[in-house]
Amino acid sequence: MKTLMQSAIIAVTGVALSGGVVSAQNEADRGQIEAVIESYATALNASDTDKVMRLYRTDGVFMPQHSPSSIGAEAVRKAYDRVFKAIKLDVDFKIEEIVQIAPNWAFVRTNSAGFVTINATGKKAPEANQELFIFQKSDNNMWKIARYIFSTTNPPRQ
Amino acid sequence: MKTLMQSAIIAVTGVALSGGVVSAQNEADRGQIEAVIESYATALNASDTDKVMRLYRTDGVFMPQHSPSSIGAEAVRKAYDRVFKAIKLDVDFKIEEIVQIAPNWAFVRTNSAGFVTINATGKKAPEANQELFIFQKSDNNMWKIARYIFSTTNPPRQ
C-alpha cells in the first residue's frame, strides 16, 4: 500500500481513438465514460469508498499494486477501505485514450499524478501512475468499471 | 461418446465468460489467445525481445511498473530491452479469465509467479504479479497484444 493511486481534475485533451468505432452514440458514450473517470478521481481524493463502489460493476475487479486482485463488490470495497485507511491521495487524472470496442464495452488508458500522504506518519510524497480501465455498460445503460489496474511510473523507492 | 465429448467440452469451457459472446469461433479465438499468452511467458523467461515483439501489435502499448507507458513498437522494444538487461525472469502465468468482447477484441486477466534474478548482482527473489492484457485480432487474423499492464501483488520491499 506504499505506492498508490489517483484523482481530480480531468484534462480532456489529446484523446486518441485507435480502432474504436466512432458514431454519435459513441460520442455520448465517451462523455459518460469521461464523467465516470472524473467521479472516480473525486472519490479517490475524498477517500470515499461508497462513491467509488457506485462506479464499479458488482462483478468488477480491482487490481491494486502490492495487493492480490480483488474480485467482486465485497472484495473491492474492502480493498478501497484498506487503501483509504493507509493513504490520502491528491492526484489528477489525464485521459490518454478512450477506445470503444463494442456497444457495451470500452477501455480507457490514463495517467495520474499528484501526491500521496501516508496517514500513519503524515509524510507526503509525489505519486505518479498509469492506469488501464475496462468499462462495461450495465443493464441500466450506465457505464461502469468492470476491470481496473494501475502501476506506478516512478522508479522504485530506495 | 457424444455425451463424454460434450462433458469434456463443457469442462474445458468452464471459464468465466462474463458478458462475452460464446460461439464455436470464439472457442477457436480463445485457443489462439491462450497460445499467445503461453508464447509471451516463454519469451519473457528467455529474455527474448524479438519473440515478444512478434506478439504485439505495432501500435501496442506496454505499461510496465516503474516506467512510463511505452507506446508503439519502437518504444515497446526499447522497454523490453531495458527489462531484460536488468533482470532474468522465471515465471509461470495462470489465466484467470478470457473475455471476448467483440469479434476482434478480447481481454485477459492473469496472475504470474516465480522468481526474478537481478542481472547486476545475481540476487534472486520471489516475484508475483497480476496482469491485464487487451488483445486485438489483426488483419491477418492473428490475435496480438494491443495493451498490456501488470503490477506486483507482493507487499512493498522494505
Oligomer, anyone? homodimer
- Find the structural class of chain A using helix and strand composition: alpha/beta
The radius of gyration over CA of chain A amounts to: 15 Å
Largest interface: A-B, 38 and 33 residues
Strand order within the widest beta sheet of chain A: 1-4-5-6-7-2-3
Walk me through this protein's architecture:
The structure is a homodimer of 158-residue chains. By secondary structure, chain A is an alpha/beta fold. In chain A, 27% of the residues lie in helices and 42% in strands. Chain A has 3 helices and 7 strands; from the N terminus they run E-H-H-E-E-H-E-E-E-E. The longest helix of chain A is centred in the first third of the chain and has 22 residues, at 24-45.
List the helices and strands and how they pair.
The structure is a homodimer of 158-residue chains.
Chain A: E1 10-11, H1 24-45, H2 49-55, E2 56-63, E3 70-71, H3 73-86, E4 87-102, E5 105-118, E6 124-137, E7 143-152
Parallel strand pairs in A: 1-4, 2-7
Antiparallel strand pairs in A: 2-3, 4-5, 5-6, 6-7
Short description:
Two copies of one chain form a homodimer. With 158 residues, the first copy, chain A, is an alpha/beta fold.
Could you name the key traits of this structure?
homodimer, 158 residues, alpha/beta, 7-stranded mixed β-sheet, 3 helices, 42% strand, globular
